[in-house]
Please model this.
Amino acid sequence: MPKIKGFKMDKKVYEYTEIIERDIAENNLTNEEREELAAKIKPMLCDDSIVLAQVNPTSGDIKKNALKAKKWIEWANMLEVKAIVFPETFLLGAPIGDYIIKFPQIVEEAREWLDVLAKIAAKTKVIIGFVEFNNSDKSGKYYNSVAVLSDGKIEKIIRKSVLSDYAELNESRYFVRAVQDDETRVVELGNKKAGLLIGEGECVSSDFGGEGVNFVGKHKKNIQPDFILACVASVSRTGKESQKHSMLSYISKKYSTPIIFVNQAGASDCLSYNGESCVYNALGELIYRAKSFEEQFFIVNPFDNEGMIYPAATGSDKRMNSENKFTLDYEPDLERTYKTIIQSVRDYYNKNGFKRACLGLSGGLDSTVCAVIMADAIGKENVFGISMPSKITSAESKSDAKKLAENLGINFIEVPIKSMFDAARDNFNNMFSQIEAKWDCRYKQSYTNDNIQARTRAMILWGISNEFENCLCIATSDKSEAYMGYATINGDMSGGFAPIADVTKTKLFALARWMNEHREIKNAIPNSIISKRPGAELAINPKTGKPLLAEEALMPYEFMDEVIWRVENTHQSIDDMAKSEFLYERLEHITKEQKLEWLEKFFRRMTSAGYKWSIMPPAPIVDTVSINKTEYHQSILSSGISYRKTSMQEKMKLAAIK
Amino acid sequence: MPKIKGFKMDKKVYEYTEIIERDIAENNLTNEEREELAAKIKPMLCDDSIVLAQVNPTSGDIKKNALKAKKWIEWANMLEVKAIVFPETFLLGAPIGDYIIKFPQIVEEAREWLDVLAKIAAKTKVIIGFVEFNNSDKSGKYYNSVAVLSDGKIEKIIRKSVLSDYAELNESRYFVRAVQDDETRVVELGNKKAGLLIGEGECVSSDFGGEGVNFVGKHKKNIQPDFILACVASVSRTGKESQKHSMLSYISKKYSTPIIFVNQAGASDCLSYNGESCVYNALGELIYRAKSFEEQFFIVNPFDNEGMIYPAATGSDKRMNSENKFTLDYEPDLERTYKTIIQSVRDYYNKNGFKRACLGLSGGLDSTVCAVIMADAIGKENVFGISMPSKITSAESKSDAKKLAENLGINFIEVPIKSMFDAARDNFNNMFSQIEAKWDCRYKQSYTNDNIQARTRAMILWGISNEFENCLCIATSDKSEAYMGYATINGDMSGGFAPIADVTKTKLFALARWMNEHREIKNAIPNSIISKRPGAELAINPKTGKPLLAEEALMPYEFMDEVIWRVENTHQSIDDMAKSEFLYERLEHITKEQKLEWLEKFFRRMTSAGYKWSIMPPAPIVDTVSINKTEYHQSILSSGISYRKTSMQEKMKLAAIK
Model:
């Protein structure tokens, strides 16, 4: 991604808009102060200035969203800009859910608010996303629409005509594809014409396999837009910003038309919208970009890009070293990963009315990274770290957990689980011998005792959540473990939110190092936590006499995480994988048999982990592709799924055809 | 639904096909015996006889499905019928999941099996559903296609052109809408022409708001079909069979064209396909119907409907007394409900390799109904009922649980939870006082102790699942409780499968009575269980000094279940509901204030229950509409969702517009 060339809004304007943002949030200015501020800003704006309302809506809370819009609109009016532009479906708040199917009155409520907002609209046009009733067929589906409000009225409505149904998007479930004249898309803003697009899908040019932006450049003068205006609700993922950059830069250059891209900020359950609304000039150069993962009252001008950008958004503009190959160099994606999760956790807690969190601190990597995240997202005083040692827990783990809590300044307590564990084990031993009398199928070796430990810990955490106001415990499972089903139901995978469930183990190590380097308080994470090899400390490895390490039970994380990457990002089968070289093979020599054994173990474990994925708590989507259930639709019943291909010869033999 | 008029295949043919089905399953006949049997059946068939392969596929297990198809095809070949017809997507097995996106080689594998099956196809044509690669665009999506195999070759391929995206269906995610000549749909079968439809959506006539069956009746003679053949994968739900009947009867009558509807049997996670493949004559009369929830080698002839039907499918052909009004008369839907759940549980256990189940027996209704279901679905010897009394558990509950287990013949054991509960409580008391020193927000009254009981019980059940081979515990939550969030996370809502999570409490009472009457062993459920008022026995009601009853904590079940019904089946808002009469109001006098209080409590509790829905174990879909997460897409973050409309006046006031 190239450097941003710079834009008209200099440091001064930026500081002024921060005052506006504070006023919108806190209502802290008098009308006189507002007018004074507006008078200072106006001379610094150009003729074609537009406000991009990079707002954080609350899904389904129409009143809240509408009253928020009102405040932003009033400020835009005061600045007399040409328009203020909100994201797609803003009045309902992305993501749209089945509530609009069950409760059409919510859609009606939003429609009425649109009429109210229209009354506030003056010379500054208001361009705002909503959901529109559709009377053209009996499908019961809606239009995903954007309204243009001006001079007290709804001037026009533009409807989305390219629907998306990949990953977290299921638009065909809710919306019909609109058929409309290209002319409809044109919005007059002063002496300029904007061509309106709705959603990611409409921005994807046919040169990239999509069917969007078809209306540009093929028309007679009167509907040829001077710039393209895209109202979008786009979720952050690894590599997505650079993909978006390629797309937007390509379009603006191809059609020699600037493009403005308005995205929302904020998170909703698993989806973290990154903001970073941006503008490209007619040469395909990025000339403005708003902050990442924050609301911003962002003044832009697609025809003027002199001056310095301030402050530059950070976190998403670096491209991963290789987009098409697995790498252990996660650095370019770490700031974005951190921000994605922080925003998700913060909004999940805030929007759902939670204030406090508790989590188990094992002294291991997962709970450590989670503790840092919780402290940064909801405030260290609101976090309680609970160390719950068993007899397998090492002295080092205990002291690491304590040290971490001290460094972070979070609350800390040690709660031994021995008495609860013993009571369960004694009860179980008695019970199992009675059951054995009827069921002659008791395992010689079982995970029962390992799991009692994990479940006792979860019971303690849920107990705290039940006992203290607005407290919610979290699950500390990571993505590598989720793939392997290496987590205990009602144990470590249980909690109100799972902050790192879409981050693989090797990336977590990198993230821990990054946090140590980039947080205000450096090196909060004791080095011993980052340098030790992970293990659940639930069982002893009979071979070593020490706590069983995860890699002994599974396979090296570097290998595992590359299989995960390949499953998600390539279309390779297990056989394709066996044939091509893994990064790990360049680091360590492994035999062909060893590699195949790991691959088979991976697919076998992944298959039976499906059940655990289905009951995983909500977790932020972080990666390009993920198994988050908001995104990944898969039945559990897939134990026989044909991951391996058979040859035609084998098939003929199986079918007994000569 | 009218009575079936009867059909050619009499008791004898039915008995013969049962021998065929056994041979397919067990391979128990010699080739000579097969030829002998075929020779007996052939003279009883008509010229245009067709075999409907009502088969139970396994989603994703291509080899298993293909080899199953092979056996059915070979038998059809021996009978020299005109065709054997399999359901939609059969080779992959409905439901399709995201595995076809991640692993295209699975689609390739199925495509190759199609070539193998083609080699088996002789004069009897094979009509079979699969998933087809699409090279017509860059979408990466597939066609949902049906192949016609004959004489060793693929004769033609028909593609689905009406995709559905409601409830459990997300077809636009996987498939592109095919554009093809109507002529393509015509399949020559002897001197008759079949017009092929794929899926429910293509059967919905425009008179019912759909866009299917458009090709019939508008064409010149050469593509006018003699009968319609629909390959479908259709899930069972309350009222769906009678809807389907209306549709199919309407179509066949309108176009004076018989219609054959081929559905699959079997379940996959939450979806239970009911089979009941059927045939309507040109007068719109139902003339054949296959068994419900079972595989069947079903020989039909759309042009001949003399004779007696044997045996008639039961369970789905009764219409609920009122389709558009809430009723407590569940009788017409109980047999279907029972069969839907039994098939779901059986297939979930069988297809996932589980053999045994354990569940808590509280002596209450939910666990009782679950125990009956488990005994009937996987065999009484494979079920262990665990009574886990606490000090609140009444003597009656204990004896009811024991009596039930005896009557059912399942294994039974009593495991007191006192020692585990005490250990947890003591540990918690100590811990809470330490935490309180930092967090001054401890509840005066909390649910912590109630929940310790529920979580201890779940810990015991998961312990048994961990300790004994192929054992999986179940969750006994019902739908009314799910709506109210009246279930404990990691407690009673935890388990490997949740058999009754889509059945409301009032319907469960009816189901319990129905089971007592219709199971081979009558009255297995002690009457005292059915007649007592439900309560979780986790806490004491301070007002009565007795265990708190659920209705005391919530609202009367008759009222609650009608709100659920209205939320799912009408588009009413909370205000609409307040205005219209509830069935309960005819039974008991309640004040307007009381009613509004209950309604508000319902919506408030439903909103915060969203989190629990998201981590509910897989559960069979039973009702017309459900909150099963396979079907219902909703973010949790909806605590502010605008269930109540505000007036325009209120809005103007909120927006401070005069």
In short: Chain B touches chain A through 126 residues (CB under 8 Å).
